[in-house]
Write the structure tokens for this entry.
Amino acid sequence: AGEAFGRLLLSLGYVSLCMIVVVSIGIFLSTMTDSTAAAVVGTIVIVVTCSVLLAVPSLRGLKPVNPTRYWADWNDLFYSGRSVELWRGTLSAVLWSTAFSLAAVLRFRVKDIRT
């Protein structure tokens, strides 16, 4: 039971880290538009498009740079005998969330917020 609880906590942390990418995409898009609905819909469109692109076999060259590439790796924690390599997904999530957050901060600095 203790090992299962530990794996559950680790998977919770991993999924939460991956969802930070979604949040940072949403924050970036919110700096690009004045409409909150456009930012929400844009975020959903980006995440769904990235997920669909993973399923297209002829676009496998895009997999290494796809933000949603490693999001399902938390499943490996619950299958015995499989190698658990969450570090790739962690690195990907940190890089993508940092990139979108930095872009949001830079965009917000130049945005005219007085209107």
In short: The mean pLDDT is 88. The longest helix spans residues 2-32. The chain has three helices and no strands.
